[in-house]
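Q: Two folds, back to back.
A: First:
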Amino acid sequence: MSEANPSGRPAGHGHGQGGEELPVIDVSERGAPRDGKPQTMDRRLFMQLLVYQVPGLSKVSELRTHAQALRAAITSKGVGAVVYEDVNDPHSFGLLTWGEDPGVFVEVVRPALVESGPTVALRPDMTMLGRTYSTGYEQDLEFWLLRRPAETVANPAWPWAVWYPLRRSGAFAKLEPREQGSILREHGTIGKAYGAKDFAHDIRLACHGLDARDNEFVIGLVGKELHPLSHIVQAMRKTRQTSEFISQMGPFFVGRVLG
């Protein structure tokens, strides 16, 4: 969808111990001005997808019961969670969790998995971790950073999901901002068209420094049917961003929310 880079921060300078000028670091998120006032907040949502195999269970019903119990254990602690049945592996499920404090992945999700009963085997190639970010154009910054991602993945009308990481080539970062904007708008317009038809809805996460394979973004596509999710990935192949500047995509996790 619209995998825009986190927006740049205003330039400024300070001084280090040696007297050298240092840039002013601002890690806050910024949206479009509202009523003439800037939108700024230092909050964001972290989301993590873990994919596990449970080879010791011989029946699908047992796997589902196990996954439902795991989800209940996590949500009982106030942490958002969705469980996906893995379309491509009958012994596997995907666990998507989220929270503003990334500590929940260690303090809540990890113990729940360790104490869940049957031995589970993590598929590390499918692990995805990212944070929501602003592009500078959000009309309601808090909604886009905190509420929309959680509401999107938890919407019962959109049970199908495709998740994947990606990395752009360094050549994209060297383009002038105006050219970058044009490339990203092409991508974003396609995404909005699919969303307007209720075909596909996206979750965009930045994963700089959080991904074992040095990916930059994690993308989640959710919808009521699987075909449009595949279709939008196909449509994006023709864009300049994907055809010229995406150096790595995938692996792709395909799942359906466990009812």
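A: Second:
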Amino acid sequence: MIDASTIYSEIYVEAGEKAKQLAERYGYLPYMVQRYLLILGHEETLKLLEAFERPLKPVVRANTSLVEPGKLRRRLEEMGFGLEEVPWYYGAFRVVSSPEHPTIGATHEYLKGLYYVHRDASALAPVLLLLHDYRGDVLDACAAPGGKATFAAQLLVGQGAVYANDVHLPRLRALVGHFVRMKLPNNVVTWADARRLPRSWGKRFARVVMDVPCSSEGTIMNDPSRKTKTTLKDLAVLAKREIELLRAGVDMLEPEGILAYITCSIAPEENEYVVSKVLESRKDVDVVEPPVKLFEWDRGLTSFHRLVFDDRVRRCVRIWPHRHQMFGFTFCLLTKVRW
């Protein structure tokens, strides 16, 4: 098992003078800006940093088990909300303007469970791809507070159940609250460290969601504290846990099952690096192409700085704030191969 000190030595990057200057101007840890420069170059790094200065509007996802999306849109617009349709999913709308009151999370329609409020549309994509043409049970191993778990349950009403697990009890209470509020009956909620599930559960799944706790670096526009919260040593610790969680998630798969590994981070240390480490350590895992193209996302990185990743990680999906006008988001679909 790889330790955090080894990871730190592998991912270490020294910030140059240009990175330090930009970091001081925008308020970042220098290593983060150095990483952007290495991946994107100077001009595009400036576009990314500027995109992080513009907060994103929330996204409403209609609970299609209770309401038709067009009807929900009309009701919210009558209250004074300005909505724009998310072009690649018919049941979601970006809230571009709001009345003085109520807030989007305090309407009668929200309290009756007719919709879920996402911070951004990016979280919808991996669920849509994972469940494309699928009916059956799903494990969401790190499910709280419930955006992806309730979306999966909504899509599978009458056709499958969502086993929603999380280790953080206060967040788990929020998850249960969303299931109840949205009147979604097809769920089983459990409280456990996802790394222990393969040893404590006999059940295996054809679909697994593994939205791991991460640096949340891709959400800087809505949480500026992320500019300085995660040092490189912190990042190494996170990557170690993410590798452990991904390995456990693969162990929870049935043969030929598919897992969505997800982070709200653009850091290759938390994404392509983690997936490559798991691919290196076991022969029963592969990365698969998404089944449909929802929008023009970017592919995964096959190298970064001194690191060369498994070439299969190019099948991963990258969402950049300055290119896609969404949170920075990365996800990979992995399958368990029969041997």
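Q: And?
A: The chain has a mean pLDDT of 97.
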